[in-house]
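Input chain follows. Return structure tokens only.
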Amino acid sequence: MAQGKLLVPTDKDRAQVEALSGYGLPFAQIAAIICDGIDEDTLTKHFKTELVSGKAKANSMVGKTLYQKATGGDTAAMIWWSKTQMGWKESNVEKFIMSKKMSGLTLDEQRQTISDACLNGEIDMKVADAALGILVKSRTLMESDEIEKRLIQLEQLAIING
């Protein structure tokens, strides 16, 4: 567009800016395409609504699709949604138990493994307390063979969730 010429956006221009914004193009690239090239300031002055609505509409469509996939059973979508929209995260306790193969150790060895990991900075106190709590509950609620089975289940759960 010639410098100094008054810009009068058409409906077609507005639709194009909205679409390009929705596709995620930076403002500088949209400005270079629209009306044979305009300044970024001119773009934001004349197309502010389209720039915002294009991005919002695109995000809405992607969000809807992601939601449909997650509620339809797509595991990857469910995991992503739970982490980003629900604030969930993988359990460090499960990761730790899985990584140390705790099921093959005696109670004293398990306690020592947890203590060493905490002292070495592998895990923080919250994870250590939770892991110890699992061990104590396991020992008081189950017989020795059942404890081994539960720890194996926890390791398997950590593998599935990890």
